[in-house]
Design a protein that fits this description.
The chain is of the alpha+beta class and about 475 residues long. About 30% of the residues lie in helices and about 25% in strands. It comes from Arenibacter arenosicollis.
Length: about 475
């Protein structure tokens, strides 16, 4: 078969990560394009097929709830990487550090002095009515006053070529295992290209994670566990992967017991004290004595042991209040309030339906907006107005009127696109970017990210639960 070429690749008004508006290749992709055009279609299809098999053999699967087609799927990895210049990445890293510092100051404030509420920087009722605001955490001071030690901030690049923050994930951000395994697979797929482009490494994430977890306790050789909801959780592969990579035990709530306000893991050798818990169980399920009394995923007494300082929970309970999509709209103000700086990475314009004027605008213009539940995730509870039917739009209007606090809206942003292998052609598909930030005694932004790609033609929804896939993200060691 013929060699790869991009003669028929169309731009169509979107920002393309590989080509500019005149179809000239961007500098960060020049070498990759030259190398790829020497590959035949047979070879490229073989490499993609080998990648699919590698994902299956590694167990890189996830579960989709309410899916009748089967329990597990692979998160399809497209072998054409997303390449980010060193200059772009260094700027993003600076902006991400700024944002996570301000958000942690905000979380610490609202559970303690509440100065930000007294100074009316953000409406008090907006914060206190958040489903993720936990009264049980009032007065809490976690180690180093850091609440969200592991975060994944979703970024997009708009049609103007600028990056924007789409949303923050400060509770149990997922996907980092796919970033790490995607890299291992792509290094084997394009070994020469990878070396020649001088791509920044991500393989030491697990070491950084372990070091960060150990830094949160005064115990010299702490016992660290990863708390998972179990094998039926959509991200179970990741829980097991990270535990194995860190040399930590993978446990479920029933494997732990609390005695005299200390947490122990049940082993074949008896009880073993636990010092740090990297939890992948949501707040409401971690302790049935305090939160959801019907939860079988947590451990009775766990929250009490945490309050006594006898165990560290990562991320801290209550951190999810900063994930609230209504709070998101105020983050540039929060950065200015706590740091005295302008936000380096801007937000998308956001309308808060809890505010009367914004609500009226959203209802009147719902056909042009993207509407989201403030506590939604995974692409659920969302309306893309321009792609929705009149009936779907009307249903969302009713939902907004019934519970305006539960919704925000944003203009539809045309996400940037990256060339993607689609059968025997290469076509542009929309992508977002999820970098990962570790925050302990210092802040580490991993020089790579999970690029999620909307595999369906024309789709803007990149979530794996909605049919999205992924790409390896190559950050070049250049300026």
């Amino acid at each position: 078969m013929s060699k790869i070429n991009f003669n028929d690749y169309t731009i169509k008004g979107f920002y393309d990560e590989m080509f500019n508006d005149t179809h000239d290749v961007r500098p960060s992709y020049e070498l990759f394009k030259k190398r790829l055009e020497k590959v035949s279609w047979n070879k490229l299809n073989f490499l993609q097929h080998s990648t699919d098999r590698a994902q299956l053999s590694l167990g890189m699967t996830f579960n989709v709830y309410n899916d009748n087609q089967g329990v597990e799927r692979i998160l399809h990895l497209d072998i054409i990487p997303r390449i980010v210049s060193g200059a772009d990445w260094d700027y993003l890293s600076k902006g991400l550090k700024q944002r996570i510092v301000a958000l942690n100051l905000f979380i610490n404030d609202i559970y303690n002095d509440q100065k930000v509420l007294k100074d009316k920087i953000i409406p008090k009722e907006l914060v206190l009515s958040s489903a993720s605001y936990l009264k049980e955490c009032i007065g809490l001071k976690p180690p180093e006053n850091v609440w969200s030690h592991i975060s994944g901030t979703d970024l997009i690049r708009g049609g103007d070529g600028k990056f924007y923050v789409l949303e923050d994930n400060l509770r149990c951000p997922s996907g980092v295992s796919y970033m790490l395994e995607n890299r291992e697979i792509l290094k084997r797929t394009f070994p020469e290209m990878f070396e020649q482009l001088n791509v920044r490494p991500v393989h030491d994430y697990s070491h950084y994670l372990r070091d960060m977890l150990e830094s949160l306790t005064k115990v010299s050789k702490p016992s660290i566990v990863v708390l998972t909801p179990g094998i039926y959780n959509s991200a179970y592969f990741e829980h097991a992967y990270l535990a194995q990579q860190m040399g930590a035990e993978l446990v479920e709530g029933g494997d732990l017991v609390v005695k005299d306000d200390f947490v122990y893991m049940m082993t074949t050798y008896g009880l073993q004290k636990v010092d740090v818990i990297y939890r992948r169980v949501d707040d409401e399920f971690i302790d049935p004595l305090v939160f959801n009394k019907d939860s079988l995923l947590g451990t009775p007494g766990l929250f009490g042991a945490y309050l006594k300082g006898n165990v560290v929970l990562v991320n801290a309970p209550g951190a999810g209040v900063a994930d609230d999509k209504a709070v998101y709209a105020y983050i540039p103000r929060l950065i200015k309030y706590y740091l005295g700086e302008e936000a380096l990475i801007p937000n998308i314009k956001t309308y808060i339906c809890a505010e009367e004027q914004d609500c009226k605008y959203v209802i009147d213009n719902i056909a042009e907006l993207v509407v989201k539940q403030t506590d939604g995730s995974g692409g659920y509870g969302m309306l893309i107005g321009p792609h929705a039917t009149k009936t779907e739009q009307d249903e969302f209007v009713k939902k907004i009127k019934n519970n305006p606090r539960n919704y925000i809206a944003q203009p539809m942003i045309n996400l940037s696109r990256v060339p993607t292998l689609c059968d025997n052609s290469i076509e542009g598909r929309h992508v977002d970017l999820r970098p990962y930030i570790l925050y302990g005694k210092d802040i580490k932004v991993i020089p790579g990210a999970l690029t999620r790609v909307a595999l369906k033609k024309g789709s803007l929804v990149v979530n794996s639960s909605q049919g999205g896939g992924s790409k390896d993200t190559w950050v070049l060691d250049n300026k």
